[in-house]
């Protein structure tokens, strides 16, 4: 957005700065001159995408199988998360597939592989490399090309439903078996395959299944960008017959919203020249178009959404006596302890998004005055009507003054605090305004006692405008935390209900405390 008059020039963000926010990248794959493994007809290639995680190659996704084709352009779009600050290794493997048996990973079906990093593809936008067989042998002249596209912030997606009428008949003994391809025409005049429909057998007026594509993929989010749509008659030997084509734009497609339909003549340029009264080779109709907007975190922040920040500190006895220098809660007059370092590290980033700079600060797992009963959600400023502190500094001061007054105890119950923040978030949810988002920062030294209740609370919270950051302080075993994070699989409640979205991020502080 342009700066209002009188603000002076707003500096352009540096490319490095914008890269760090980049989160998802779409990859398109094509191959040339693949080896022919089949005696009677050509190979039926399929591409597997593997990603290296902790030294192991894991399959992330695979493409469709393209029948009888040594120069395949795959319709499958691989989406990968892109972390600017990490080296993310990718491996593409091409196999000759065999019908119902699926993709065999036998050596004799292996058509070649290629390794690179996400960063290389993103930096070069288009990478073509030779395919290698086992032991570094070239797979003949085979090459693989990967084209990458960043998914920009304004990325929504569209749902399209096409049909055709009265297509030309290309088959002698039956009717054509039509499928539709949509290509986006880029600035350099090259064409990118956006989508390939399924084949409708033996039908000159096919109705194809509705499908979804991102606006980025369809037209690079530019409504006037030219699109080329081609109808083919499918041939199992890979020699598809051209029926006809038409050109359009996303702008024109949008006339199909609501009750309207848009249609195009499907033209075969050769027939147009040869036949005098040639009208078309059929008509393609866009029956329906729905646009789904997807908003990013920044869209909400720029739209005025406020972040409300709550800190929860673990005051259980396993942290050690605060008077002892080995304790994670040790009050050291010369330097902050582990809890304070973690609090400041996360809090300073989050406070930029919080307009009133007031943070709710809670404690759990301690006996508190006046009766010294155990509490799992007490205000560390001991003001039960207003648990907010002024800025991160206010939280630090409340923490330091509360430590001598409480007795570290247990057990480590986290569910009560998650439920407390969730109740506030639920009140906000009812307003339907998306004006507030809640972040709960839990600082803990490890094992959770009420794991079942905590899992239940997180599944409930995943339906609300809130996220949870858990920072593991000290050198304990953080296996429980890794489970709650859900990165190794979907977190489920004890009854088996999955989270609606992944709202927990766990970070072991010891791995990060020495980085800038």
Automatic annotation (TrEMBL):
Residue span(s) of domain VWFA: 308-507
Molecular function (Gene Ontology), one example: calcium-dependent phospholipid binding
Pfam families to which the protein is assigned, alphabetical: C2 (PF00168), Copine (PF07002)
Boundaries of every C2 domain copy: 4-131, 138-265
Gene3D superfamilies, alphabetized: C2 domain
Keyword list, A-Z: Repeat
Keyword Cytoplasm recorded: no
Biological process terms in GO annotation: cellular response to calcium ion
GO terms under cellular component: plasma membrane
Domain of life: Eukaryota
Record-stated family: Belongs to the copine family.
PANTHER family with a match to the protein in the record: COPINE, COPINE-7
Record-given protein name: CPNE7 protein
Name of the gene encoding the protein in the UniProt record: Cpne7
């Amino acid at each position: 957005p342009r700066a209002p008059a009188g603000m002076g020039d707003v500096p352009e963000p540096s490319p490095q700065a914008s890269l760090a926010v980049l989160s998802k990248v779409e990859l398109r794959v094509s191959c040339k001159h693949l080896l022919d493994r089949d005696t009677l007809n050509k190979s039926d290639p399929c591409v597997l995408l593997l990603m290296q995680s902790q030294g192991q190659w894991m399959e992330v996704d695979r493409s469709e199988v393209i029948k009888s084709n040594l120069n395949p352009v795959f319709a499958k779009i691989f989406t990968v998360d892109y972390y600017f600050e990490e080296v993310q290794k990718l491996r593409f493997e091409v196999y000759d597939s065999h019908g119902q048996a699926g993709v065999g990973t036998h050596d004799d079906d292996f058509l070649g592989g290629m390794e690179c990093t996400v960063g290389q593809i993103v930096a070069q936008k288009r990478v073509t490399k030779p395919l290698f067989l086992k032991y570094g042998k070239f797979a003949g002249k085979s090459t693989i090309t990967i084209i990458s596209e960043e998914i920009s912030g304004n990325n929504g997606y569209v749902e399209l439903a096409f049909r055709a009428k009265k297509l030309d008949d290309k088959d002698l003994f039956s009717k054509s078996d039509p499928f539709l391809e949509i290509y986006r025409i880029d600035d350099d005049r090259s064409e990118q395959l956006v989508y390939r429909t399924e084949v409708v057998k033996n039908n000159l007026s096919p109705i194809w299944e509705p499908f979804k594509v991102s606006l980025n993929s369809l037209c690079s989010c530019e409504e006037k960008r030219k699109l080329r749509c081609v109808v083919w008659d499918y041939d199992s030997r890979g020699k598809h017959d051209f029926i006809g084509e038409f050109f359009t734009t996303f702008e024109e497609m949008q006339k199909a919203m609501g009750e309207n339909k848009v249609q195009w003549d499907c033209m075969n340029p050769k027939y147009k020249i040869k036949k005098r009264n040639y009208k078309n080779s059929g008509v393609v109709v866009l029956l329906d178009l729905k646009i789904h907007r997807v908003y990013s975190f920044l869209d909400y922040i720029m739209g005025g959404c406020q972040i409300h920040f709550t800190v929860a500190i673990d005051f259980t006895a396993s942290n050690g006596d605060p008077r002892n220098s080995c304790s994670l809660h040790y009050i050291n007059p010369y330097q902050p302890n582990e809890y304070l370092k973690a609090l400041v590290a996360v809090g300073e980033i989050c406070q930029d998004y919080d307009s009133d700079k007031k943070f709710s600060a809670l404690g759990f797992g301690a006996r508190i005055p006046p009766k010294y009963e155990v509490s799992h959600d007490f205000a560390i400023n001991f003001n039960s009507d207003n648990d907010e502190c002024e800025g991160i500094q206010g939280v630090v001061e409340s923490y330091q003054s509360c430590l001598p007054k409480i007795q570290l105890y247990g057990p480590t119950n986290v569910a009560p605090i998650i439920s407390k923040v969730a109740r506030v978030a639920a009140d906000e949810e009812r307003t339907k305004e998306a004006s507030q988002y809640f972040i709960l920062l839990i600082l803990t030294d490890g094992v959770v006692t009420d794991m079942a209740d905590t899992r239940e609370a997180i599944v409930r919270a995943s339906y609300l405008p809130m996220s949870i950051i858990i920072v593991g302080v000290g050198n304990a075993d953080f296996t429980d935390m890794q489970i709650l994070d859900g990165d190794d699989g979907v977190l489920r409640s004890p009854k088996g209900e999955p989270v609606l979205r992944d709202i927990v991020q766990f970070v072991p502080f010891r791995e990060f405390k020495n980085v800038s």
